[in-house]
Each structure stands twice: as C-alpha cells, then as structure tokens.
Amino acid sequence: MFQFTNEKMVQALCFLSAESQLPVRVFVGPELSSPALVNILHQLARSGVQIFITRIPNGKLHLKCAVIDDNIVLTGAANWTRQAFDTNIEDVLCIDSSELAARYRQRLNELLINDGPWTEHGSEIYPRTTRPESPPLSATGVFHCPVKQAAVFFSPANEGAAILREQILSATSRVDVAMYLLTYPPLCDALREKAAQSNVAIRILVDSEMLASPDILRSLASAGASVFWWGRKQSLLHLKAAVIDHHSVWTGSANWDASAFTLNIEDLLWLESPQLATTYLRFFDWIEQQPDIQPFQVLEPAAVPLTPPETVLKPGEYFTGLPPTGPRTNWTIIRKPFPAFQTTASVQYLADEAYFPVLLNLVNNARQSILISMYVMPAGPGRLRPPADRASRSPCQCR
Q: What is the pLDDT along the chain (399 residues), one digit of tens a residue?
C-alpha cells in the first residue's frame, strides 16, 4: 500500500492479527515510517502484523492491492486513506481468482528478498483489537460480472504499457480514458494518432493536476479528442483506468507516466469483460455530467499591440511592454504613474484550482523578466500542492 492512514482499515488488520490469529503482512514504502505516520505502523506491529519497508532507488512502492486467502485480489487506484474513500474519484476491484491471487502473492514475495520485517513497536502505542463495525453494503457502485480473461503486468517494466499501446492503436470504435496523470509519450502519441481518425472516438478525463502540462492536453484536443478536467476543491480524479472498444478494461495503480512504467513498483491490470467495460463507461459518463468537470479549451494566443505612450521618456525608459533586447533593469520606473494607453487583449477566467498550474507554466516559460508583488510566499511546501519551489529556474532575471 502506497498510503495507509484509514483508521478502520488499520483497526481491521489489528483485529485479524491479534484476535483471529490470522497471518497478516503489510508492505509499505519508507514514507509511512516518517515521524508523522509511524504510529500507524506501531499499532500494526504491536498487534502481530508483519511489516516490510520496501525501498526503491529513485522510485516508489505505489501498489494499492491486497491478497486475501489466496483467492481474492483487491486492487485499483484507491489508497487506504479517508480521502480516497470519502472524497476522491477512485476505483477498487474485488477479483475472485486464485490464479490472479497467485501472481500478486508471487510479486509481493519477491519484495522479501532484501528486506526483513520491521521490528519497531513503539512503547506507548496500544492498538485497538476489537472488530470494527461494518456498515451495511450499499448497492450503489457495487456490481458483479464475469471476466473472460485477465492479465496483470508489474512495473518497473514497460511490457504492459506496450500491449496497452497496441490495443489503443488497434481500436475500431472508441477509447475512453480516466487518468490522474497522463504524460507517458508512447501512450499519448497513440491516443493522438487514434483521435486523428474520424471513425474512432477518444474521450479523456483528467485531474486538474494535468493543467500543469497544458501542451499535452492541447495536442490531444487539437487532434480531435474530447478532453475534460476535474476541478473540485479537496477532491482528486485519481483513476488510472481505460476502456477500449466497449470490452477491454485497463486499471490498477499505474498512472500513465514514465515513473510508473520504469521506476515504481506498480500493477497494470487488463480485464476482458464487456459487462465490466459497460460499468466503467457508465461511471465515466457520470463523471462527465458532474458540475465540477470542465472541457479543456484550446486557446490561441492573442496579439497585444501597444500604443506608444504620450509621455516623453528618457533613453532606455519605458512604461509598458518589455525592452527589445533584454530583461528589465530599470525597476525604479514603476514608481512613476502609468499613463493610460489603448491595447487589445484576451481574458480567461481561472478557477481557484487552475490558478497554480497556469502560474507555474508562465513562470517556467518566462524569457525576459518576472516582477512579483506578493504578501505571503511560503519558503517550502505548505498548503499549495504541488510545492511552491516546483518552478524551474528560467534564464530570465527574477526580482
């Protein structure tokens, strides 16, 4: 599990280990052993749960899966956190397949080669070992359907991505994608190629995080894909799913980006099931109908001709525009009153969640000057997501 902070899930595993005497193993990344989260691991360890810290050079343990009784596999996009289950758009599949369970168990066993169990218990952590209450199962979002065949591909490797790319290129009617991050060039290129074919419909739903990569969205929309982005505050479109030609479903933990396929430990699951595909398509339709989903629009830059100011300026001074040959250096000029001038411009409204990605793009692409007047600018990661120091250094002068 990449993130594991859901109190009820922690309590359930503590109960199974301490009271039911079932063997329970939990694999996590080093992030969960940080001071802010280590109490969760202490609770599990004191209940008898075996914990394994998996460290990957330059990568992450990004799985969100469980194997139960060697028959059931739980997997999908959802971490075991309150946000995943209460606010985000996620998927969790419960798959009854001993063959698939064996594949997942084998992959998890491979993580044991270099790591022994984590042995810290915490001196003052007393786990809750009572059986957690289970709410009645709601029929909403719960479905049962047969699967003709299935395959799972574990990263770091790109075998699954290569097969997925071929399926996209072989699509004959439509491809629907709901993806948190969509930046992997081979898959983006395949989607663009199919979008350019008028007989294949391409629908892409992404999180507002993708607004930080507007060129990718712009190229997909320009090729003919229908692109939408999710913009609800405090909520993520966290899916990593696709449906091809109404029968082939892809899901798992892997975003469609280079880290997922070359660095991280991920799962990419393919399921052949028209019934399951129909369920996902209905879910995608529901997302598209929500008021927090917005179509991505390709905006052409507008020319902004400037009328020379009437005020006579000294050589090297100017009130508006940028100098013709280099960055602005005479900053004291802004102390003078600005004369009125006529110009043409275009205005685009930015919702709160779109502000930071657009600002970041402008900063990263600045070529002459950046002038900032800001009441508060955090020095490190704060309430902004991603952190304020994400902007790369540009060749311009910043003051």
A: 999 999 999 999 999 999 999 999 999 999 998 888 899 999 999 999 999 999 998 999 999 999 999 999 999 999 999 999 999 999 999 999 999 999 999 999 998 876 678 877 665 666 667 777 776 655 556 678 899 999 999 999 889 999 999 999 999 999 999 999 999 999 999 999 999 998 999 999 999 999 999 999 999 999 999 999 999 988 999 999 999 999 999 999 999 999 999 999 999 999 999 999 999 999 999 999 999 999 998 766 555 555 554 556 566 554 455 555 555 555 555 555 555 666 667 677 777 777 888 888 888 878 778 888 887 775 544 444 444 455 544 445 444
pTM reported for the whole predicted model: 0.74
How many other CB atoms are found less than 10 A from the CB of residue 104?
23
Q: Which residue in 230, 163, 165 sits closest to 194, CA to CA?
A: 165
User: Is residue 320 a contact partner of residue 310, using CB atoms and an 8 Å limit?
Assistant: no
How is the chain split into domains, by residue range? 331-347+366-398
Could you tell me if 204 and 179 are in contact, meaning their C-beta atoms sit under 8 angstroms apart? yes
**Residues, the chain:** 399
Alpha carbons 309 and 340: distance in angstroms, whole number: 8
